[in-house]
Amino acid sequence: MDAETIRNLIETGLPGARAEVLGEDGVHFEARVVCEAFTGKPLLARHRMVNATVKAQLDSGQLHALALTTLTPGEAG
After folding, report:
1. Does residue 34 sit in helix, strand or coil?
2. How confident is the model at residue 77 (pLDDT cuts 50, 70, 90)?
3. Model's pTM, two decimal places?
């Protein structure tokens, strides 16, 4: 698993999202996701939306940990 693959999964699963993903060890990653669909949603709902895009990788163990920062475009500035 690599950061680019995760970025693609997130951006494909959340149309209009922009994701920046970092992670060097192949199993632990950080993602900053900016998406209009987060508007009006609490933090937990936003995280669930992102986690749903990588569910198969989380369930299979390919992706062990994904730390998230989730923002609307207005919050991202």
Report:
1. strand
2. confident
3. 0.93
